[in-house]
Structures are given as C-alpha cells and as structure tokens.
C-alpha cells in the first residue's frame, strides 16, 4: 500500500481580501489601544471588595422588614409601581408609534423621501437620552411616576415604531389585492387584510418592548421619575448595602417573571 | 337564487367570537386602569403645563455652540468607555458561550447552572449597574467601563451561544472521529462556523454601549453624561441642547457605520 500521503492543494490566496482583513484588524487593535490611554484605572477605592461583598450578602440575607410593610414605601409596592409605569408607558408608546410606523414604512406606493425622513425622525427620538426626557417631564408634571410614564411613552416610540414599520414592510400585498378584487372598500381592506395580518407582529413587538420598558422604568427612578430606582439610589447614597442587595434581588425577580410571562404570551401568539 | 340567499352571500363574513379574547381585553383594560391609578398619570396636567415643557425644548433648540470645545474631550472618553466595555465584555462572553453551549459541553448540570447565572446578569439594567459600580469602585470612567462590560456580556453571550448551538454538527463529528481534542474541535470545527456571527454581535453590543455610555456619566460613571447632569442642574438648557445634539450625531453615525459593516459581514 502506498504510505505516502497525498498533499492537499494549497489554499487559494485572495490578496485583496487578506489585506482588507489585516487592515481591519490593525485598525481595531489601534482603537482598543487608543481607548486604554487616558482612562485612569488607578481610581479604584480600597473598600471596593468589602462593599461588593456587603451587597452580595444583602442578596442572600434580605432585610425582610423592607420587603413588605404596607406603608407604600416598601419593596413590593415600589416594584408594583415600576411595573405600572412600564405598562402604561408601553401602551402610550404603542399608540403613538402606529402613525409613525406608517410614516416610516418603506412601501411601494410612497415617495422615497417620505419613509426616509420618518426613519431619520425615529433615529433621533431613539437617540434622545431617556433621562433628559424624564427630567423635562418632571419640570412639566412634577416629580413622580407620571413623569416616568410619559418619558417612557415618548422614548419607546423610537424603537417601537421602527419595529412596527418593519412589520408593515414585511406585509404581503396579496390579501389586500384579494379584498380589492372582490370589491372591498378601503375600510374593508384595513379591517380584513391589513389589521389581521399586522396584529400578531404588533402585539409581539409591544410585548418585547414591555420587557425593555420594565428595565427602563427601574432606571427612571434615579432622576426622581418614580419606581424602584429611587429607593435604590437612596440606599446607595446612605450606604445601606443590605438594602441595595434586597432591591437588586427584587428587580431581578421582577424582570425574570415579566420576561417569562411575556415570552409565554408571545409563544401562544405565534 | 332567492334574494335572501343573495343577501347572505353579499354580507361580510363574520368573525368567530372567542371568549378567551374577551378575557384578554378585560385583563388589559383592568391593567390600564390600575396602572393609571397607581402612577397618578394625568395627561391633562401635561397639556396644562405644556408651555414649560415646550420652553425647555425651545431653549435646547438654540444650542450654545461655544460649549462644543468643552464637550469634545468627554465625548472621546465616552467612546473610549464604550470600546473598552465592548472588548472586555465580549472577550468574557466568548469563553462563557463556549461553556454553556450544549453541543460542546455535554454536562447538563454545568451548562444549567452557568445559564442561570447568565440570565440573572442579563436582567440588571445598565444604569443601575453603573450606579452600583460607582458605589463600589468610586466615581469615574472605570465604573462605566465595568457596567458596560457586564451589559455587553449579557447581550453577546445570549446571542452567541444560540448561534453556536445551531451550527452544523458534521465538522465536529468528523474531527471527533479523527481523534481531535476539545480545543482542536473548537478551533477547527466550531469557530469557523460562528466567528462572523460573533463579530456581528459585538458590533451590535457596541451600538447599544455607545447609546448607554452617553448617559452613564449622569450618575458619575464617566463620560459626557457628567456635563448633561451639570448643565441640567443649573437649568442651562442651551448647553444641554449642545450636548444632546452631539450625542445624537455620534450615536446615529456609529449606528449607521456599525449596521452597514454588520450587513457587509453577513454577506
């Protein structure tokens, strides 16, 4: 038997591609090195490990008296407020998103600049910092969860309308034409073809956004717009590490439960 | 055909009525009422005070361009934070995803526990992480980088391990058959199939990080958010407007570049 192994043919070399890959690699490495410069890593407090340990022990030794005491300032009622902010905020943004979505959707019977401008507007709304929006609403309606609801409601439009418009773009024209072919009016088209086809995507996207809103709602409290963020920042400022731990645990449980519920509903929808 | 039959044909089709749908609607409306009550949201108050809201907005629309020079250094710091956070987070996520992918690590107990840890880490929002890290390591960009790294980790690990689990098992079997060890299997069978996905997810996480890093400074975690907080505190809205415009331009620009390169990568 022939024991000499056959040599594999050499790999084809694409010089252009190789140069491009090396260039990208070098630029990336350069960027990373550049970012390491100028950031002061020496500023870590000596107590860092101790504080982290205290927060961790707070997660495992919760301050039960804080979990529920019926005063309205306890963990459960703050979490409930957070959920309510997210729910109402998502609802408001879903309603505002609909017209924006139809504006930004790139469909056939539309000038190109219409959907392009819509997309740019949505990108700007998306990039407007949520916290600043919350502060503006606090100026208008006073501190509290109402400001949080409105900030969330307006900020979410940027992302939600983008998702909606993608759903509209993916709509099949067939059902519309079928309804038109049998003599349906414009309302008939919307009632019997557009809405039924669009609804599952709308609900599923809104539920997805609700998951994100829960996380945002727990942040908004940091600036005084209601929800669980406020007691957290207070506890951090007063160095009540046990309480920080239990609040974190509460947020984690809340987010997991909400994710689980909305995932379950979305699965049923599909 | 009689006229009644014709009428029947002309009538629009009736939708089937489902009791479950009604239940959902009732739950939904109840939720609306409860949450409106709980948050004391009153849109009337918003419209009544809309003048104030619009006033801030109008002041922001007249940005103070001379402030630009002060903003640029912190803007660069913000981008640096985002890059570092992405690099650290995705490097950890890379190894972690290999450990929790069930087609690489066969031990269900290990992957299960590691996945629970991952899911817990994923739940905490970026700004809260920032606030906690500020308390732990002190005010400065280090807290921001750490918060961003953990966020990146959460995003990339989830997407990447799912990508690993959906690869073609053929190459793995082939390499196992010729007696390759675990590392060789990963390098020669798994990575060539998923590395483009990994890069794409890192870029995606980078987009999110740029967005998040701009506000991290608000709570003292470094970056341009610091000026955001300072100007808002003294009600200097024209300067706030400058910062916000700069943020929007940078975010939109980076979003565009990154999403275009992701598209190019996936081709």
Automatic annotation (TrEMBL), chain A:
Gene3D superfamilies: MetI-like (1.10.3720.10). This is Phosphonate ABC transporter, permease protein PhnE. GO terms for cellular component: cell envelope; plasma membrane. SUPFAM superfamilies: MetI-like (SSF161098). GO terms for molecular function: ABC-type phosphonate transporter activity. The chain crosses the membrane at residues 20-41, 79-105, 219-238, 244-265. The lineage of its organism: Bacteria, Bacillati, Bacillota, Bacilli, Lactobacillales. Its main location: other. Keywords: Membrane, Transmembrane, Transmembrane helix, Transport. The keyword Cell division does not apply. Belongs to the binding-protein-dependent transport system permease family. It is a multi-pass membrane protein. The gene is phnE. InterPro entries: MetI-like, MetI-like_sf, PhnE/PtxC. Residues 79-262 form the ABC transmembrane type-1 domain. It is found in: Cell envelope; Cell membrane; Membrane.
Automatic annotation (TrEMBL), chain B:
GO terms for cellular component: plasma membrane. Pfam families: BPD_transp_1. Gene3D superfamilies: MetI-like. It is found in: Cell membrane. Its main location: membrane. It is a multi-pass membrane protein. InterPro entries: MetI-like, MetI-like_sf, PhnE/PtxC. The chain crosses the membrane at residues 19-36, 81-105, 126-156, 183-203, 210-228, 240-258. GO terms for molecular function: ABC-type phosphonate transporter activity. The keyword Transport applies. Keywords: Cell membrane, Membrane, Transmembrane, Transmembrane helix, Transport. Belongs to the binding-protein-dependent transport system permease family. This is Phosphonate ABC transporter, permease protein PhnE. It comes from Lactobacillus helsingborgensis. The gene is phnE.
């Amino acid at each position: 038997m022939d024991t000499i192994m056959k040599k594999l043919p050499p790999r084809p070399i694409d010089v252009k591609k190789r140069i491009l890959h090396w260039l990208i690699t070098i630029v990336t490495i350069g960027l990373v090195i550049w970012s390491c410069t100028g950031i002061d890593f020496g500023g870590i407090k000596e107590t860092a490990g101790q504080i982290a340990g205290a927060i961790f022990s707070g997660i495992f030794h919760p301050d039960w008296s804080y979990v529920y005491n019926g005063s309205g300032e306890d963990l459960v009622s703050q979490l409930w407020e957070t959920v309510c902010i997210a729910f109402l905020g998502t609802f408001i943004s879903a309603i505002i998103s609909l017209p924006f979505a139809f504006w930004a959707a790139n469909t056939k019977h539309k000038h190109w600049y219409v959907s392009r401008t819509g997309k740019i507007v949505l990108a700007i709304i998306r990039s407007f910092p949520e916290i600043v929006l919350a502060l503006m609403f606090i100026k208008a309606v006073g501190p509290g969860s109402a400001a949080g609801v409105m900030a969330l409601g307006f900020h979410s439009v940027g992302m939600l309308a983008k998702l909606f418009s993608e759903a509209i773009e993916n709509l099949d024209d067939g059902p519309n034409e079928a309804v038109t072919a049998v003599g349906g009016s414009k309302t008939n088209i919307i009632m019997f073809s557009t809405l039924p086809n669009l609804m599952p995507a709308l609900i599923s996207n809104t539920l997805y956004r609700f998951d994100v809103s829960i996380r945002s709602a727990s942040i908004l409290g940091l600036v005084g717009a209601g929800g669980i963020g406020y007691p957290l920042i207070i506890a951090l400022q007063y160095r009540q590490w046990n309480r920080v731990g239990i609040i974190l645990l509460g947020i984690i449980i809340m987010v997991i439960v909400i994710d689980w519920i909305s995932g379950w509903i979305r699965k049923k929808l599909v | 055909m009689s006229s009644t039959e014709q009428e029947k044909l002309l009538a629009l089709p009736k939708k089937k009525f489902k009791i479950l749908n009604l239940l959902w609607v009732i739950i939904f409306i109840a939720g609306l009422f409860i949450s409106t009550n709980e948050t004391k949201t009153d849109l009337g108050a918003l419209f009544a005070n809309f003048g104030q809201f619009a006033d801030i907005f109008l002041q922001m629309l007249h940005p103070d361009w001379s402030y630009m020079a002060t903003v640029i250094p912190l803007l660069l710091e913000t981008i640096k934070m985002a890059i570092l956070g992405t690099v650290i987070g995705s490097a950890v996520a890379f190894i972690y995803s290999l450990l929790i992918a069930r087609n690489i690590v066969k031990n269900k107990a290990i992957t299960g526990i590691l996945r629970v840890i991952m899911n817990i880490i994923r739940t905490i929002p970026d700004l809260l992480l920032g606030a906690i890290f500020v308390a732990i390591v002190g005010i400065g960009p280090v807290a921001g980088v750490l918060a961003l790294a953990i966020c990146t980790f959460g995003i990339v690990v989830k997407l990447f391990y799912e990508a690993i689990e959906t690869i073609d098992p053929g190459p793995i079997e082939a390499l196992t058959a010729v007696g390759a060890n675990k590392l060789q299997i990963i390098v020669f069978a798994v990575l060539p199939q998923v590395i483009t996905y990994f890069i794409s997810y890192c870029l995606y996480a980078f987009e999110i990080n740029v967005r998040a890093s701009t506000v991290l400074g608000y709570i003292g975690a470094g970056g341009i958010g610091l000026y955001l907080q300072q100007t808002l505190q003294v009600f200097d809205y024209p300067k706030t407007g400058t910062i916000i415009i700069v943020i929007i331009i940078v975010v939109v620009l980076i979003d565009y570049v990154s999403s275009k390169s992701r598209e190019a990568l996936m081709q």
